[in-house]
Hints:
Elements: H1 3-24, H2 33-52, H3 57-75, H4 80-107, H5 122-145, H6 155-177, H7 185-265, H8 269-283, H9 295-310, E1 314-319, H10 329-348, E2 356-364, E3 367-375, E4 381-383, E5 386-388, H11 395-411, E6 415-421, E7 424-432
Parallel strand pairs: 1-2
Antiparallel strand pairs: 2-3, 3-7, 4-5, 6-7
Amino acid sequence: xxxxxxxxxxxxxxxxxxxxxxxxxxxxxxxxxxxxxxxxxxxxxxxxxxxxxxxxxxxxxxxxxxxxxxxxxxxxxxxxxxxxxxxxxxxxxxxxxxxxxxxxxxxxxxxxxxxxxxxxxxxxxxxxxxxxxxxxxxxxxxxxxxxxxxxxxxxxxxxxxxxxxxxxxxxxxxxxxxxxxxxxxxxxxxxxxxxxxxxxxxxxxxxxxxxxxxxxxxxxxxxxxxxxxxxxxxxxxxxxxxxxxxxxxxxxxxxxxxxxxxxxxxxxxxxxxxxxxxxxxxxxxxxxxxxxxxxxxxxxxxxxxxxxxxxxxxxxxxxxxxxxxxxxxxxxxxxxxxxxxxxxxxxxxxxxxxxxxxxxxxxxxxxxxxxxxxxxxxxxxxxxxxxxxxxxxxxxxxxxxxxxxxxxxxxxxxxxxxxxxxxxxxxxxxxxx
Length: 433
């Protein structure tokens, strides 16, 4: 393997690490082939700067920072100032690790082992070791600061991912330590191909896993969207039904008033009294008996109250004036619909006498307080500290629903508590107003 090809590949790995590092802190400006063009231009610029400024260390570092900052500003959505700061941090990390690998090489006594041989791979192996360490550092930084969701991979998964770059570092270090036993050009070629191959496989594995995470994240977001659409559709259907009912009631009341007027004119007061009592008893059974001065909350609570009655669930509510509620309508729908749907489903699995659902939704003391307490029969399952669904049908929607509620709570800087004690499930939410 020629020194020129080795230099090009090393710079390519460095450029890829820089690209991955920047993408931790921002999203791509463009999609498609233009990203490949940006990568090629960055590779060419760094290669020319490294060749032309090899004798001027300070100037070379300044030029490298400018190249990385400007081209990455074109590649990733961020301010130019932030791009320069990241370029400075990235270059500082590379230099620090380069010095670390230099001292590792000294520690292993690499200097002088190639004396009298017609080939030299000491520096290449040391540089590759540095790039492997840089890649490992970028992965760790990405886990901590990556803006897009990383909930798909838990800590155990990330430890498994880090095993491969750690193994690469160990192997290259071992190659450096046994370099004195390399005697033939064929052995040199094998070592170089193995070293570059392992570094390359790290990059390939990273992008494969990244694609899988992107697809899983997209599926998760699609699940949230479908659940939101379903909840909103139910809510709007409820509002539409209530509106139609109200129109029918208005027409019916006109007829009833006309009937009462006729009976009064005929002075049949006993009939009037009997008729009014009948109307009053019917009004007492009306579905829309919950009024919080919030149309969205009313629509959801009245619908779920009726559903609870139909399933012989005792539904206890505590609400107050929610006319000043400062939570977006779609977020209200998501929280209430998911909580009450899950609670009603859990109650339906209980014996009829044990079906109890309690809801608290109040605006008081500068806080929005939402609490749902319900009985349940099926044991609550916990996996990695998270509540898992026991439903056989659409279990994924249940998990997405709970996570979606938590995301909304965090959106409004709120807090929550989830408990399951003595066959009773409790979900409490507090959101500052």
